[in-house]
Amino acid sequence: MVADDAALAQLRAEGFAGPHACALVTGTGLGALVEAVEERRSLAYGEIPGFPAPGVSGHGGRLHRGRLAGRSVLVFEGRAHAYERGDAAAMRGPLAAARAMGAGRLLLTNASGSLRPSVGPGSLVMLSDHINLSGLNPLIGEASEARFVPLTDAYDPALRRALRAAAQEAGLPLAEGVYAWFSGPSFETPAEVRMAGILGADLVGMSTVPETILARFLGFSVAAISVVTNLAAGIEGGDPHHAETKAVAARAGTDLARLAAAFVARLPEP
Question: pTM to 2 decimals?
Fold first, then answer.
């Protein structure tokens, strides 16, 4: 996909041109990551042609360009979700713009529910794979042969090694797991959570997977981190709600920012 010409023209005029070591997307309540970015310049999504306006509290809806751990980065503060308008490709325009602006790596973050009681609220989990249980795909309707995106190692092994090393360096525990994408916006039922566990999921959530598919389509190398905000429905009495998601994510945001900075510091200069 070619990024929107008007969006690129505006972003270049506003000083967002790359190259960049990495682009990052923040999940619900995880805007604290933005505070770690120095020399920031920012634009609201609503000011950029073709960018969606997030409609979920906890998603700031701004694009930032700055320096994290001495590297140039783009940070998407918040995302648009498939459940907001039924569009699994809601983040296609922003990701295409980031790719055209010189970012070749993408670090996705999200808030999720855990199926493993030992990996409870506040834990950081690196995604090793995902399961798409939504019935949606952001490439439906794409006419080119590029739509047949291979997703073996969708979460890049080299970037996962860098995340593990960064976590060790920062002194942060980092679990690893498989993320199951449900479309939302309602939370999963206990029966759906049990099904996801039987299929091999460790986490459940309502984002990230469509962005991973789009990013691989666009040629990004992808890594992803979940911040566990609750135990999934029915796991040791888990009964998730959005206020809990935002509150726990905000508390864990400092650890996420430390991990992201240590990760970006390990990336080569763009």
Answer: 0.93
